[in-house]
Amino acid sequence: MIGLFWNLLLANCWVFLTGSFGVLNYLFGFLMGYVVIALIHKRVPALEGYPQRLPRFFRFFGFFVWELLLSNYKIAVDIVTPPWHMQPGVIRYKLFAKTDLEITLVSNFISLTPGTLVLDVSEDKTTLFVHAMFLRKEEEVLADLRNLELRILEVIR
Fold this sequence. Notes:
By secondary structure, this protein is mainly alpha-helical.
């Protein structure tokens, strides 16, 4: 988070120093700030790991958009075709996430994906209870949830 803050600050400085307030100039300033942080991140402990985290974020963003499109397509096909293929159910999902922020992000991204909804978190914060619309093979749903969680944790840790 600190690295992103400094990157945004450097981008804003670039925009104000150049006097051009366009989106492309801001993106160029963000890229230049990223390069500066990548060059100095080993000498500044607060910036450690930021240069690796930003590409992970863009990979996660692409992955999530793709998953969002696939699940929307799956639900749309199920709604339009006469025999419904839904087999809803609730499953128990053990978390790797430890902090409240990690659990909240994992829960929100699971709920944002059509066809799944987090119903509750266990009191010891180690398990999510997830409602899934397509629960034919519980192992596949659990594997998809694990993949999503690991990608989120890769970005924020």
